[in-house]
Amino acid sequence: LGYGQDDRSCAFTSVAALLENQAEKRTCCCLFVDKEEIGSVGATGMASNLFENMVAEVICRSQNYSELVLRRCLANSYMLSSDVNAAFDPMNPGLYDKDNASFLGGGIVFNKYTGSRGKSGASDANPEFIAKLRKINDDANVSYQMAELGKVDQGGGGTIAYLAAKYGMNVIDAGVAVLSMHAPWEIVSKEDMYQAYSCYKAFLQAN
């Protein structure tokens, strides 16, 4: 139980996994951005050109830069959008579709698509990428669950995933289930935190 588990629980596990990772075939990074709740605006939001500029700097240190090389690099990237999911609340079951909800202690949560009123404003991960993630987590013995952001017409929301998907990269939301999201005090499971860390670490090592 604590304040700001959305998204400290995902930020902490992400940086812990990155610091224990050794880049091999691919360059790995964690990008910590602000203002997600109000549209990812500003110089520190994902809607800025920060990520493109950072990748361009990396390219310039290894080869001649061109816009085409940058676009190809982004399109050939893989991303886990580390964001929390609303855990099923047994005191308010009518707000959830129990068969498609995340639960405390169920492991890291994958959202194939986000959005409100179903898929409005969504980023939708392709099944081939999901299959790749399932194999990575199965091989690493990581517990995971698939869910959506609340019951249709009752819940929903967005993350930064769609802003990465516009580059053509494979991206999916992957994070910790949170009970009482956006309340002054939020609840997460320690087990889910560990599984999120393990998932991020396995993902970085696999790519």
Outline of the structure:
Helices cover 34% and strands 13% of the residues. It has 207 residues and is of the alpha/beta class. The protein has helices at 5-19, 50-60, 67-75, 127-139, 161-165, 190-206; strands at 78-81, 85-86, 108-111, 115-116, 144-147, 156-157, 170-175, 177-178.
In total, how many beta strands? Answer: 8
Question: Into which percent range does the helicity of residues fall?
Answer: 25-40%
Q: Which word captures the global form? A: globular
Instruction: Decide which structural class fits the backbone.
Output: alpha/beta
Count of alpha and pi helical runs: 6
The fraction of residues in strands falls at 5-15%
Q: What is the oligomer described by this structure?
A: single chain
Biggest β-sheet: count, sense, barrel?
4 strands, mixed
Q: Segments where pLDDT lies below 50 for 5+ residues?
A: none
Distance between the termini: 33 Å
| Helix and strand sequence | HHHEEEEHEEHEEH
- Strand sequence of the main sheet, in spatial order? 1-7-3-5
Query: Radius of gyration, Cα only, in angstroms?
Result: 17 Å
* Mean of residue pLDDT values: 90
Q: Describe it for me?
A:
The protein has 207 residues and is of the alpha/beta class. The protein is 34% helix and 13% strand. The chain has helices at 5-19, 50-60, 67-75, 127-139, 161-165, 190-206, and strands at residues 78-81, 85-86, 108-111, 115-116, 144-147, 156-157, 170-175, 177-178. The strands form three sheets. It has a four-stranded mixed sheet. Helix 2 packs across helix 3. The protein is globular and about 60 Å long.
